[in-house]
Every structure is written in structure tokens, then in C-alpha cells.
Design brief:
0% strand
Length: 181
Amino acid sequence: MASFVERVIGAARLDPAAYEEVEADPNALGQAMAVVVLASLAGGLGSSLASGGQGAGILGGMVLSVVGWFAWALVTYLVGTRILPTVDTKCDLGEMLRTTGFSAAPGALGILGFLPLIGGLVLLVSSLWQLAAMVVAVRQALDYTSTGRAIGVCLIGFAVYLLVAIVLAGFLAGSGITPTA
């Protein structure tokens, strides 16, 4: 069994074996959540440093990242197992949470978002890398042989997640509650 750091590196390298390992380890859920929190913290610190220390919403951003991870994993799980399963698809929500949590590993690069001239590029690369990791995570969790099918599930899951986030943001704005407060 790989260490936490080895799992994070394997996930960032888009190594299917790393995702298979965390999928099969029910004790890795805490580690998956730690990856989400650490990636969110890195991104929040990078943004805060870029804005001259105006990062009052780092804690709120971490909470929203964990909630967002759970929501996207849940929607992706439902789409992948109920709408687009294959004959080989065997997955439970815990497996999806573990694999998708580790897919946040490239988000640790967000700490470099403060760098002049290239900070924005680093954040873009980090986001695209996380998206690629999410596809690998979903492919492995759902036991797909097709990366295209995993991309489809991720896109559908993201669209639903985005719609829910927009509705929730509208509700929060209308109620006077701000997520960064």
C-alpha cells in the first residue's frame, strides 16, 4: 500500500493504478478529503498573495470546496451508475468520493498563483490538470474502458453541479447570506 504522499503524486501523474488503489481502500476517504482541503488551501493562499493579502474567504473557500467535491462526486456517481453505466460498472459513492477527492491533487499548484506574469497561467494549467485527473478518477471508479464515456459523465455531472451552484448562489444572494463571509 502506497503512502499518502505516494498516492497524491500518483493521482497528480494521472496514474490509473493510484486511482484503483484509493478506490479499493475504504479507509482512504479522509485522505481524499485532505487532498481537497489542501488543494483549496493552496489555491486560496495563492490568490490571497496575488491580491496583496486580501484573502479573507480562504476558510469559506475550503468549506465550499469540500461541499462542491461531494456534490460533483454525487452527481457524477448517479450519472455514471444510473444513466451511463456499462455492463462492468460497479461503483459506490465512497469509491467515487475517494477517487475524485484525489483528482484535486494538481490543485496544489494554486499556491503559485501569486507569481507575477505567470500566476494566471499556472492557475489555468492547474485547473485543466485537475479536470484531466477527474476524468481518470471517474473512468477508474466506474470501471469504464472508454475515456470518452468518462469525459461525458464528467461533463454532464459538471453541468448539473454548475446549475445547482448557480441556484444556490442565487438563493444565498437573495437571503443576504454571503458564502465568503
